[in-house]
Known about the structure:
The chain has helices at 2-28, 83-86; strands at 37-38, 43-46, 49-59, 64-73, 79-80, 87-89, 107-108, 113-121, 127-133, 140-146. With 154 residues, it is α+β, with helices and mostly antiparallel strands.
Amino acid sequence: xxxxxxxxxxxxxxxxxxxxAIFLLIIDKDEYAFKSEYKIGEQALIDDIELTLxxxxxxxxxxxxxxxxxxxxxxxxxxxxxxxxxFVFYDINMVQIPNKYTNDKSIIxxxxxxxxxxxxxxxxxxxxxxxxxxxxxxxxxxxxFTSSEIIQDI
Length: 154
């Protein structure tokens, strides 16, 4: 009688361990912290498009800034990035500032990663924000950075 109780207890403990391991594996697959605002170096995911703002640099004797993004297309289709539709950068009066840079590549195939640059003529301020609109739904995410995080033009 005692041996059969021990076997049942061992089987139950084994089942609990297996269920816990499966649960941890399922949870571990979610590598993104879904939120609406990101900083330099944080990876974002919106509508199966991965984005990371890698760096921001002063350009043109500090009269503008250049933003460098890494973009990975995790959708099932090819996407074409249009800088002024996907990225919205406002001045202090909430008027959109147009991007001044033309990228060599704006078409991103499924599972492809590209580096994408944007340049804006902008007055110096303490906090900067750029919004990314995926064009799939009306939601967006924001990348924010401060003037102290901008690399000086060499």
